[in-house]
Amino acid sequence: MKRKLQWVLSSLFLMLIVGNLTVLANEYVVVAYVTSHSKTNPDPTVMTHINYAFGHVNKSFNGVNVENEPRLRQLVDLKKQNPRLKVLLSVGGWGSGRFSEMAATDSTRLAFAKDCQRVVEQFRLDGIDIDWEYPTQSSAGISSSREDTRNFTLLMRDLRNALGESKLLTCATVASGEYIDFPSCISYLDMVNVMSYDMGNPPYHHTALYPSEITKWMTTSEAIEAHLKAGVPHEKLVMGMPLYGRGVKGYYLQVDSLEGATKLWHEQSMVPYFVDKDGNLEMSCDNERSLGIKCQYIIDHQLLGGMYWEYGDERQEKLRNTICDVLLRGKPTPYPADYAGNRVRFNALFIWNPSAESAHVEFDKQALQFFHKLSYGDGFRYDTRTECPSSLDTLKKYDVVVMLNTLPQSKQARKAFEAYMEQGGGWIGFHGSAYNDKHTDWPWLNQFLGCGTFLCNNWPPQPALVDVETKHHPVTRNLPSQFVVPASEFYQFSPSPRANENVEVLVSISPKNYPLGIKDIVNFGDFPIVWTNKQYRMIYLNMGHGDDAFIDATQNLLFTNAFRWITLGQKEEK
Ligand code: ZN
Hints:
binds zinc ion; 2 domains; alpha/beta; TIM Barrel; eight-stranded parallel barrel; 25 strands; single chain; about 575 residues; Rossmann fold
């Protein structure tokens, strides 16, 4: 007997040495929920714990039923490949009831706890996870009582007594941290898995890290804070992350693309999301980038680790690997949440009109991509909208408002924008943002732009030779004195902005282009296309039609200069 013990001890020692080579310098946990109906055989090296979903309180309230027992045995067998893997039975899940009745009396509660111990023994499990959604609540169609919170504590006590100290007892909790009296039961629990997902339906994000206009009820960071406040110590707290998307059609297992939708990244909420052609949120999810950032949050806040629902199939592989890389393999997150270069210098708002003519929409989409790339490293944060906000307070959150081919339509939005500019707001307008004719009915716009209404245009869009009129301005300082801008439609205004003493013209169409156009021809006339009205912090750029706008390095430099000047340059110069 003694000899055998010695052998066990020395092989344990060997395993530690060998194990050291492959796994775990860190002590974070990664909990993967694996469902009874899934078919994939999980890779047991990418997590530390498997929670098998699900078992249920039985009909007589005194025991537990396990779904698909062969599947559970198959998962326990994975320990042969990873001896450190822990496998727990999760009891409950959305719509799984009878907790309230079971927990209400000593006899049923003790019998249930004893039966959980029986299941742990029988299947060689490492513990029990209680996924009661939720004590005192019947929103999942289950029975509940006001006594549930108190009885939940008694249930934890009895489960701990039945399982003993060597087994794990964990629970899954609502994001808000409500319904459980943590101070009274936390000593019985090894970890608390926060279900920080399903926190919103379109048009809101279901698992944003931080609050913004795309979140409503809660965010992941708020869920973590709520649990800390409710009495869960950080060393028992596990952040939940979804490996699925939630959208207008329900549940999406494919999260890196969505047919017919545009993928966007929210700089404030630190999550990806998909919008339809009208700019409405169609599906919200996590991706490798947002999961990396969430894992970094776990590290920064010294939480116990991360949990995800659910293991899934090969479509979730990259997502699982990201979590494993950051939390278990100690790899730096590919997109750190906080680092020295990540100090937000300003906030920008981009406004576009997805239902404008298609050549304008094409430009707008490429412009959003272009400016998104400029935000690399999170040096600035931006939001995207399809209408100008009608609240001055909202506008004031931004250092610059970039209007692509759109301008404020409603009276309220126009008033807010006027006030924003009069009070020192920043504006960059492209192409259609200055289009106004006798129907526009907005005299302020003309004095703001410093020019008259639309006079004429060239058609079709075509490249044009342009004159850079001054080298004494930050926007044009590093540009050649002439260059050819990519194909665009250009608007000529009357009177010309040059007639306005407050206007400084920076770039104009060279007269050498005349006659410019084929169908619509501009034959003559002063033709400024980039200017600033010195009364305001603004610059207008006439380009912005079609999909050629971002193919020319010189023009890109002009756009970048303009953006830089409005957001930073004027401040730096003072
Ligand atoms: Zn146009």
